[in-house]
Amino acid sequence: MPAQVVDGRAIAAAIRREVQAELTALSAGHRPPGLAVILVGEDSASATYVRNKAKACEEVGIRSVQIHRPATISREELLAVLHTVNKDETVDGILVQLPLPPHIGERSILEAVDPAKDVDGFHPANLGGLLTGHPLFVASTPLGIMEVLDRFRVAIEGRYAVVVGWSTIVGKPIAFLLLHRRATVTVCQKWTRDLDRHTRLADILVVAAGQAGLVKGDMVKEGAVVIDVGINRANGRLVGDVDFASVSPKASLITPVPGGVGPLTVAMLLKNTLVAYKARIGLPRQP
Fold it and tell me: 20 CB contacts (<8 Å, ≥6 apart)?
């Protein structure tokens, strides 16, 4: 039986409606939540991402503050900008759009974000909190993956999960999220020796390696849940790290590219901003 294909756009729309509904209920007597997005330089892809985030914020009732600085800005000047938004009581979440110009150094900037406003989940305090199971925020893409698993009622406890890719944006966070849900987890890379020996055993397979078509049908267990996080351009179109045509007949559930995990990233950012906002106005962080 062909795999059930995840409609990430539909799930993202549902999340936005949920966030909007909660914010509408909170609107009486409270200021609107604020998300500050810092963009440095003129990278067209980054500018598009920022516009999409601003549009999503407007849709659900989050005030989007866009701070655009030239690529020539110094590290000290950008740190001063961050200091200002860290102290701004009307800003609940801060997002620094990556990549930054090479002369600035991403690490020093990400470490300067207030962890309580780090809705991207990239601050070392939040990454360390994820290790112990108590982060303030987790990166949006791994959260989106967990949202897919939960909405499709995928059993996680006791299952064997394989994550291909070890970035701090996707691979490492999703591995720990799965571990905290009592899965047995193996983390591989695209250059792992005999990669297929690991992937064939996976009940849950998450692929975020950055190589188009890396995982083929003969590398996947019958009935596996396959989450493709890759975004690659091949022959003029977007494709994932999973060869959808050969894998989907074997999987029980699969995310396509495009239209799978991608749309959930912005939606989960909005959800993180809602969590930050509720904390700052004195409400419980979780619904």
Answer: 59, 60, 61
